[in-house]
Amino acid sequence: MAATMPPTPANNNGPKVQIVEKVGEDKSYNYSFTYEKATLYEFKFNRAPVPDPIDPCFRCNRRVQPKDQLLVTDVLFHKQCFRCRICGLPLTQQTFHRNTDNGSSDKEVYCRTHIGKNIGQIQRGEVPAMGAEGPSVDGKNTLYR
Ligand SMILES: [Zn+2]
Ligand SMILES: [Zn+2]
């Protein structure tokens, strides 16, 4: 996943999804997911190059203060980072999924639509950018960062 992928417009008629990944020279990692339907939905995160020595968040590598901690089967997240890796859908302890195919030890979390899927499949339109459970979009939402 180190490559920088160019933004890929979906087909001309349907809603557009644009996913951009960028790895900084310092190994920081930027991800943005933009989904345009009637309105725009945007999900972004930036992963620090190295995990904080104290209570790093699995998603963003930044320290999690005790009041923001969410511990899910031994993996620590910021509450606001506990979202689908691909589309940014907010997850709960009841709704998250992990990819356990082929003995995978992937600790990332996904929504029901994107479990076992990869970013390339979304960009090529093989998998919906948003599942039926996707967030209702209302105006331009930058979820965090
Ligand atoms: Zn985080
Ligand atoms: Zn998702």
From TrEMBL:
Keywords: LIM domain, Metal-binding, Zinc. InterPro entries: Znf_LIM (IPR001781). Residues 55-121 form the LIM zinc-binding domain. It comes from Pomacea canaliculata (Golden apple snail). Gene3D superfamilies: Cysteine Rich Protein. The keyword Metal-binding applies. The keyword Zinc applies. It comes from the Eukaryota. SUPFAM superfamilies: Glucocorticoid receptor-like (DNA-binding domain). This is LIM zinc-binding domain-containing protein. The lineage of its organism: Eukaryota, Metazoa, Spiralia, Lophotrochozoa, Mollusca.
